[in-house]
Design a protein that fits this description.
69 residues, mainly alpha, 3 helices
Length: 69
């Protein structure tokens, strides 16, 4: 048993109002099927922030810890 097509065109001469109604219905259907937006992940829980860089110890270590790598 074959399924009926979701859209069947009977005549090829549609008025502007009919085309506008069809577009509105199709946009409504498409909007209902869109995936919901995910909430952004906080940078506080980002993995790359959990990994610390190695800092040298010993004389002058505090100074070199602030230098760019």
């Amino acid at each position: 048993m074959s399924a009926a097509p979701p859209l069947l065109l009977i005549e090829g001469d549609a008025s502007e109002e009919e085309i506008a109604a069809l577009v509105a219905v199709l946009q409504g259907i498409a909007a209902g099927q869109a995936e919901p937006e995910r909430e952004p992940v906080s940078e506080w829980s980002a993995h790359h922030r959990k990994v610390r860089a190695w800092s040298p110890s010993g004389p002058g270590g505090w100074r070199s810890s602030a230098l760019p790598r």
